[in-house]
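Comment on both lines for my students:
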Amino acid sequence: MFIYVTFDSNGFVTDYKKVETDGYTKVFVLDSWINQFAQYPDKFRYDATNQKLLNPGNLPDVSLNTLNQDFTKLQTTMQNSQTQIQGITESNSQSAQALTALAQNQSALAVQVQQALASVTALAQDNSQASKASNDKTSSNASSTPTTSVTK
């Protein structure tokens, strides 16, 4: 296949066209090189002495199809990772809400326990005063009751 190329001072291809264009040099590309040339044109050199295109011979053996498949796999992996991150974020948000509700319930329970303790303390004090008053009445009744002694 013939193509038309421009090249720099070192002979590396800088541009190519499929149709004859002014300022471009006509070169032959082997059929086995076409895919590599299409992917890496700037790696090929034009040998002005022999007037032919030189293949660097060390190009990666990767097709556009393979690159596209790898890109699709990477894109899928990134989407899955984003979904996992969103799930973790939502889970953390729900956990934070649950912890907040638990803390609020504990605070309310602490207030109720304090109120119950105050009620029990007040009841105990009332019972203590009532018991003391009852004991005072009993001891005052005992001291006011006359005792009689019988003599024979």
